[in-house]
Write a structure and sequence with these properties.
Length: 173
């Protein structure tokens, strides 16, 4: 039978050492976010101004039609603009921008504007939403800018932060 003895020595001195620890953090942004915020806030303000001007009665969502910023609006069109603007703002505040959603919203606005421009007046869209050719041109421009900025805008990323960690090292004498 073999006996083993274990000796544990007490530390005599304590020293502190430093080491670097890297943590990766991704902060991304895109110029499309700035464009999306400007367009989203502008459309939302336009929609709220139109709701304030036309009023909102659930029995008559198509009337009255009133001009706000030289664009005719029905109460329904004003609500659609508020919702669209809020969605664009939400797509723009995501880090790096939710480019897929922004591109989708731009394509929807572009298609809506083209439909308004192609349809002969008077039509159902004119009755329901109060839109005219100026509204179609406005939607085409807004949709085109959103779509192009979402597709072509680069995404910038910064990555690394440095942290110094202080460790206690025991020195045995």
């Amino acid at each position: 039978m073999t006996q083993h003895y274990v000796y544990e020595e007490q530390p005599v001195d304590v020293e502190y050492g430093e080491r670097e620890r890297h943590t990766s953090t991704f902060s991304t942004w895109s110029p499309a976010q700035i464009i999306g915020l400007i367009i989203g806030i502008g459309i939302t303000v336009l929609g709220f101004a139109a709701v304030a001007r036309t009023g909102f009665d659930t029995d008559h969502i198509y009337t009255p039609v009133d001009n706000v910023w030289r664009l005719p609006h029905s109460p329904l069109m004003a609500l659609i603009e508020v919702g669209f603007g809020v969605l664009v703002i939400l797509a723009a505040v995501v880090p790096g921008g939710s480019r897929g959603l922004m591109a989708l919203l731009g394509a929807i606005a572009l298609c809506f504007g083209l439909v308004v421009l192609v349809e002969a007046m008077p039509n159902r869209l004119n009755h329901w939403l109060g839109v005219i050719d100026r509204s179609g041109i406005f939607s085409v421009v807004v949709g085109g800018v959103l779509l192009l900025s979402a597709i072509l805008s680069p995404v910038f990323t910064s990555r690394t932060r440095r942290h110094i960690v202080r460790d206690e090292q025991r020195v045995v004498a």
